[in-house]
Amino acid sequence: MDEVKVVVAHSERATLRVGDVFLKVDADQARIDTEVEAMSLVPVPTPEILWRKPPVLAIAAVPGTALGRLGEPSSAPPAAWAATGAAIRMLHDAPLPPWSGGAGRDPAELAAELDSECERLVTGGFLPADLVTRNRQVAEAAFRPWTPAFTHGDLQITHVFVDGDEITGIIDWSEAGRGDALYDLATLTLGHEEHLGDVVAGYGTDVDRDVIRAWWSLRSLLAVRWLSEHGFDPFAPGCEVDVLRARM
């Protein structure tokens, strides 16, 4: 019998792996609905859906290996990062999805949430005030007008699988929707700034790197407390707190 491996588990959702099958259990069926519909629409490789019986979605493992992991050097060649950039450009050029969720939030609302979170980070003793203040300043560049694109919404490097320099699959589409294209690029390269040039080369058009850096700061500031309270370690080498320190 294949071993049951817990990939991720917290109060909102859990993912288990049994052999070549992933079982995703989610308390919010809307996220699963989004994931299933997104995978049916996007012009990039995605996992095969094996079956669905709420609250469980079963998908097949994709071949290849993850592009990398946060906090660890990526063994993927520059060509794989460039291929990922090209795949993301195909996604962003696709027709917009019929739903409005995802990374497309009102800038004023997001700024207010960030200000509240920054205050909690300081008063709760999670991070020093100067580190929070500096990154809040950097994050300001993300609050600008942008044209909605079909975005993945949570494009961590562990969600992109490659074989050599070929993309074999992009997983975890529950946050997909109409969003800021640069948010996807920033999420992918968070903690791997050295590969941003490769991704942009594959993406095929110039991007505002100050906005990407702003999203690095913004995403990290919003994540530190949640990660700390859910059993993850944003203080590990190369992870979110180091991303924030790099902006000092």
Lay out the secondary structure.
Blueprint: E1 4-9, E2 13-18, E3 21-26, H1 29-41, E4 49-53, E5 56-60, E6 65-66, H2 78-93, H3 107-123, H4 129-139, E7 149-151, E8 160-163, E9 166-170, E10 177-179, H5 181-189, H6 196-203, H7 209-229, H8 240-245
Antiparallel strand pairs: 1-2, 2-3, 3-5, 4-5, 6-8, 7-10, 8-9
Helix pairs in contact: 2-6, 3-4, 3-7, 4-7, 5-7
Class per helix and strand makeup: alpha+beta
What is the helix/strand order? EEEHEEEHHHEEEEHHHH
Unreliable spans: none
Binned, the helix content reads: 40-55%
The second-level CATH architecture is Alpha-Beta Complex
Q: Indicate the proportion of strand residues.
A: 15-25%
Sheet bearing the most strands, described?
5 strands, antiparallel
State the CATH topology. Aminoglycoside 3'-phosphotransferase, Chain: A, domain 2
CATH level 4 superfamily: Aminoglycoside phosphotransferase (APH), C-terminal lobe
CATH class: Alpha Beta
Protein name: Phosphotransferase
Pfam family, one: APH
Domain Aminoglycoside phosphotransferase: 41-204
InterPro entries: AGP_Transferase, Aminoglycoside_PTrfase, Kinase-like_dom_sf
Describe this protein's structure.
There is one protein chain. Helices cover 41% and strands 18% of the residues. Strands 1-2-3-5-4 form a 5-stranded antiparallel beta sheet. The protein has 248 residues and is of the alpha+beta class. A hairpin with a 2-residue loop joins strand 4 and strand 5 (56-60). The longest helix is centred in the last third of the chain and has 21 residues, at 209-229. It has one domain: Aminoglycoside 3'-phosphotransferase, Chain: A, domain 2, CATH 3.90.1200. InterPro entries: AGP_Transferase (IPR051678), Aminoglycoside_PTrfase (IPR002575), Kinase-like_dom_sf (IPR011009). Residues 41-204 form the Aminoglycoside phosphotransferase domain.
